[in-house]
Amino acid sequence: MPEATKVKNEEATGAGISFPLPKPVNKLGEYPRRFRQFLHEVRVEMRHVTWPTRTDVRATTVVVVITVFFFALFLWLVDLSVSQVVGRVIKLKP
User: Fold this and answer.
1) What is the pLDDT, as a whole number, of residue 57?
2) Buried-exposed string 47-63: b where 16+ CB fall within 10 A, e elsewhere
3) What is each CA distance from 93 to 1, 13, 86, 87, 90, in whole angstroms?
4) Can you tell me the distance from the alpha carbon of 76 to that of 70, in angstroms, rounded to the nearest whole number?
5) Which of 21, 76, 85, 93 lies at a 20 to 30 A Cα distance from 61?
């Protein structure tokens, strides 16, 4: 009779017969917890970010645009001169 009482108590408490789950199943169960932890850490880190002011963004944007135009002009001139040199070399060959 004590055995029947033990089984009844285990069923009532939800203990029952337990067995280890395979690793992939355990890993699947961890994903929601790990995802919540990741989002929490992202929120904490985003609070530490120092965002640039509107003036800073404008200034760096102007620098980037001027630099892009400068290099575009420079590369266009290099391409033009190289194409002229290659054209003259090809013209010289019989």
Assistant:
1) 97
2) eeeeeeeeeeeeeeeee
3) 109, 95, 11, 10, 5
4) 10
5) 76
Q: What's the DSSP call for residue 17?
A: S
Query: Could you please report the per-residue DSSP string of 47-78?
Result: HT--PPPHHHHHHHHHHHHHHHHHHHHHHHHH
State residue 23's pLDDT score.
72
By the 8 A CB rule, do 2 and 10 touch? no
CA distance 67 to 4: 84
> CA-CA distance, 35 to 28, in Å (whole number)?
11
pTM summary value: 0.51
Amino acid letter, residue 6: K
Ranges under pLDDT 70 in the chain: 1-19, 21, 94
